[in-house]
Amino acid sequence: MKKIAIIGATGSIGTQTLDVIRQHPEAFEVVGLTAQSRVKELASFVEEFKPAKVAVGSKEKAKELQTLISTSTTIVYGEEGLMEVAVDSGADIVLMAIIGSAGILPTIEALQAGKDVAIANKETLVAAGEIVIDVARRSKGELIAVDSEHSAIFQALSGQSLEDVSRLIVTASGGAFRDKTREEMAHLTAIDALKHPNWAMGDKITIDSATLMNKGFEVMEAHWLFDISYDKIDVLVHKESYIHSIVEYHDGSMMAQLGAPDMRVAIQYALHHPRRLKSDFKRLDWTNIATMHFEQPDFTRFPCLRYCYEAGRAGGTMPAVLNASNEVANARFREGKIGFLDIEKVIYETMAQHTISSSPSLEEILAVDEEARRIAEGMVKASQG
């Protein structure tokens, strides 16, 4: 039985992970959970799974949680509490499902403590990929891909050599606005962008999917996870989301991983690989699939994808700037303070103001993250007149 701690238990990935664990109580035990503010939802999970330790965002939330549970679970709070769950809850695997650059430190701490980290937090590898990968290589812990695209690549590489790989093809649904013109996108709201055609995801990542920033982040993650250059990572829009990614080898052979668009399949594999557990998740019915569509991404309509390639190739502190400015712009769009096309403007202008520092320390990355947020927030305010 594997002991699991979930950092970000009340989000989309966290709740889907708990669903996987419900289906396999013989295989998994929940020993740690965290949530920032959704105390009532967290309380219901504590009552159900009885973890040894949980963390919430503040002392006040901890007091509230204490009144809602009947278990002997230890409650901690704040950033220190989150680290405590990641490192000291007794977990074998820490599933990192927290949103944003807040996932950087707990990921590093868990790896250094020898924990396996199943990483669903894109921003950690985007902003601090070189540092995190270096920590993973030096630690006893393993960094395990959770995203369906990276899980697909990981599976397609099984038993193969990276030396034989010609390129990685990361597939994309295209997001909620994949068939919209720039003129149409200018007038669409967060409510429109949150209507993802295929996947059930959290609000932040669904907006990132609409801008194709999410796909760009996945390209950057693939670069670090599989140690392959950006020149050998392509994006292919596949509207049905049946093919989750493809590995092309030097001899022309291609290996693809397919399945219904359900994140629980990738989560379950991450938690239990290389063995596969049975599940009742939806299967693809080939007799009902009339056709599948493929097309190149449009870097003009969706420049955020291009920004990711540019930031990734630039390296140093630029990916941290890209991520921080996107977090700000994404949040302000969801709040209705800027338009959809303003997201890319905020990101572009913030990146344009940055002077890259090569091979930065973690402290430098965190400082750059803070500065980029300040600049991006200033641009949001300026756009409001």
What does this protein look like?
By secondary structure, the chain is an alpha/beta fold. The protein has three domains: 2-145, NAD(P)-binding Rossmann-like Domain (Rossmann fold); 150-262 and 283-288; 315-383, Rna Polymerase Sigma Factor, Chain: A (Orthogonal Bundle). Helix content is 48%, strand content 15%. It has helices at 12-23, 39-49, 59-68, 78-88, 104-112, 122-138, 148-156, 182-185, 190-193, 203-211, 213-225, 263-272, 303-314, 318-334, 340-352, 362-383; strands spanning 2-7, 28-34, 53-56, 74-77, 93-96, 116-119, 143-145, 165-172, 233-237, 243-249, 254-258. Strands 4-3-2-1-5-6-7 form a seven-stranded parallel sheet, sandwiched between helices. Strand 3 (53-56), helix 3 (59-68) and strand 4 form a beta-alpha-beta unit. Helix 1 packs across helix 12, helix 6 runs parallel beside helix 11 and helix 10 (203-211) crosses helix 14 (318-334). The chain is globular. The termini are far apart. The model has no long low-confidence stretch (mean pLDDT 95). Keywords: Isomerase, Isoprene biosynthesis, Magnesium, Manganese, Metal-binding, NADP, Oxidoreductase. Residues 4-129 form the 1-deoxy-D-xylulose 5-phosphate reductoisomerase N-terminal domain. Pathway: Isoprenoid biosynthesis; isopentenyl diphosphate biosynthesis via DXP pathway; isopentenyl diphosphate from 1-deoxy-D-xylulose 5-phosphate: step 1/6. Its EC number is 1.1.1.267. Its cofactor is Mg(2+); Mn(2+).
